């Protein structure tokens, strides 16, 4: 290695007008938001992901930023490293979303997306979740799995590598609402229910 | 060689010796917000080798020029600066065509953000947000106003040194980085728990350097800030 990595620093409390400006009603164009399913007719199951980020005291953070990264319903990532052409890319689906928790009265993050397909025969479907906030000096990676995929999760190598008593922290709970399918995924930074974070 | 052949099989791990701990005794809010248990190891798969790509169309004409992209009725106040540098991986290879997002306070130390209640004036002609893409050699360039120090509530008489926030992607979500760029010879660096949270020997990498070559005569002072992201752990043979 010839060069050393630039250290990470916290995103701080005032990221919104730079990273999520339109969501927070600042006059600056936003590149990506919580709407990851820009077309109604996008292949795959339409889902909403909601959740909060809790600190050690159980307080929901009102200044966190969440990013999601996921493959499409066929399990294909929209990226040159995924060349599996037998799984078609879907026009208009990037697989990336970003949402700050400062605009919802309950400090929730809210993403509208499609349920991802499994990326291979071994792993259950999941979404990579990245947490940024004041007081978090390095961004934290976790994974969101879906509560209705129990069969696939029983032999998922990543989930099975997680101590059984902590596995539940990675499972988003499915709920059928009047407006559609919703998964709740709360993130606990500390405490008994501390979310499992990965050294990605 | 097709594009897929050049894709790395994995990225070097985060260099934790160069990073702050999640819980830092000097930076108060880490105590309840930092990850407290060990991170779990995970084998790299396609989810870690891929990430969002932003095309040239992501960046508007004035997005890189913070002295112009927030103008209402005149020029923003403060010391005009040029911030430029190269985004590289650990092997010294440029990271081309990657998005760099920045945000900062104004020349009085005030952020546009609605939650900033510091008693310093807003500048009607300065937003403080921008973005650009690196070029084929990984170079980026912003024009801005030098941000100022501002007080915060971490401890008595706490002041953040002047800094610019930067957010980068690189080729995958593994190379994601959010950091802060500081200015040389700032006396506040010695007292700032956020800067000091990073081990000595590494924190200095977050300090830009003044450059007379980048400085443009009778117009703006130049600062160079190179950024190093995680690189492929096995470099493909040329």
Automatic annotation (TrEMBL), chain A:
Protein name (Swiss-Prot/TrEMBL): Protocatechuate 3,4-dioxygenase subunit alpha
Alphabetic keyword roster: Dioxygenase, Oxidoreductase
Family of the protein in this entry: Belongs to the intradiol ring-cleavage dioxygenase family.
GO terms for MF: ferric iron binding; protocatechuate 3,4-dioxygenase activity
Enzyme Commission number(s) of this protein: 1.13.11.3
CDD domains membership: 3_4-PCD_alpha
Pfam families registered for this protein in UniProt: Dioxygenase_C (PF00775)
Residues of the signal peptide: none
From TrEMBL, chain B:
UniProt cross-references to Pfam families, sorted A to Z: Dioxygenase_C
EC numbers, comma separated: 1.13.11.3
Keywords: Dioxygenase, Oxidoreductase
PROSITE patterns in alphabetical order: INTRADIOL_DIOXYGENAS
GO BP annotations listed: 3,4-dihydroxybenzoate catabolic process
Domain (Intradiol ring-cleavage dioxygenases) ranges: 83-111
Entry GO MF terms: ferric iron binding; protocatechuate 3,4-dioxygenase activity
InterPro entries reported in the protein's UniProt record: Intradiol_dOase_C (IPR000627), Intradiol_dOase_core (IPR015889), Intradiol_RC_Dioxygenase (IPR050770), Protocat_dOase_b (IPR012785)
Family: Belongs to the intradiol ring-cleavage dioxygenase family.
PANTHER family in alphabetical order: DIOXYGENASE, PUTATIVE (AFU_ORTHOLOGUE AFUA_2G02910)-RELATED, INTRADIOL RING-CLEAVAGE DIOXYGENASES DOMAIN-CONTAINING PROTEIN
NCBIfam families from the UniProt entry: protocat_beta
Protein known as: Protocatechuate 3,4-dioxygenase subunit beta
Taxonomic source organism: Natronospirillum operosum
Lineage: Bacteria, Pseudomonadati, Pseudomonadota, Gammaproteobacteria, Oceanospirillales
């Amino acid at each position: 290695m010839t060069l050393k990595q630039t250290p990470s620093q916290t995103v701080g409390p005032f990221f919104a007008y730079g990273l999520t400006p339109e969501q927070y009603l600042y006059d600056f164009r936003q590149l990506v938001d919580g709407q990851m399913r820009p077309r109604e007719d996008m292949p795959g199951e339409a889902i909403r992901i909601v959740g909060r980020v809790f600190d050690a005291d159980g307080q929901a953070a009102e200044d966190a930023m969440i990013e999601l990264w996921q493959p499409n319903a066929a399990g294909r990532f929209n990226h040159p490293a995924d060349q599996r052409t037998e799984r078609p890319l879907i026009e208009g689906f990037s697989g990336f979303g970003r949402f700050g928790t400062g605009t919802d009265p309950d400090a929730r993050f809210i993403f509208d997306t499609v349920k991802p397909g499994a990326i291979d025969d071994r792993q259950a479907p999941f979404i990579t979740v990245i947490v940024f906030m004041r007081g978090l000096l390095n961004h934290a990676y976790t994974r969101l799995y879906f509560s209705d995929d129990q069969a696939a999760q029983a032999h998922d190598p990543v989930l099975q590598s997680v101590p059984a008593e902590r596995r539940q922290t990675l499972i988003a709970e499915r709920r059928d609402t009047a407006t559609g399918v919703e998964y709740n995924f709360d993130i606990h930074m500390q405490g008994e229910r501390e979310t499992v974070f990965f050294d990605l | 060689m097709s594009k897929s052949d050049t894709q790395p099989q994995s990225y070097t791990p985060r260099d934790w010796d160069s990073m702050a701990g999640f819980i830092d005794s000097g930076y108060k809010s880490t105590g309840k917000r930092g990850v407290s248990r060990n991170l779990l190891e995970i084998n790299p798969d396609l989810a870690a080798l891929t990430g969002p790509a932003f095309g040239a169309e992501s960046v508007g004409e004035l997005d890189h020029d913070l002295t112009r992209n927030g103008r209402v009725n005149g020029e923003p106040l403060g010391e005009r600066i040029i911030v430029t540098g190269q985004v590289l991986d650990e092997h010294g290879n440029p990271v081309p065509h990657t998005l760099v997002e920045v945000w900062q306070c104004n020349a009085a130390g005030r952020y546009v953000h609605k939650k900033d209640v510091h008693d310093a004036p807003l500048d009607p002609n300065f937003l403080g947000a921008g973005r650009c893409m690196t070029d084929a050699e990984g170079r980026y360039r912003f024009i801005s106003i030098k941000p100022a120090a501002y007080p915060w509530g971490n401890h008595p008489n706490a002041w953040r040194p002047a800094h610019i926030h930067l957010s980068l992607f690189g080729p995958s979500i593994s190379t994601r980085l959010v950091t802060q760029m500081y200015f040389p010879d700032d006396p506040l660096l010695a007292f700032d728990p956020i800067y000091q949270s990073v081990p000595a020997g590494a924190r200095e990498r977050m300090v830009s350097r003044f450059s007379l070559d980048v400085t443009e005569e009778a117009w703006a002072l130049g600062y160079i800030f190179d950024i190093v992201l995680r690189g492929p752990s096995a470099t493909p043979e040329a």
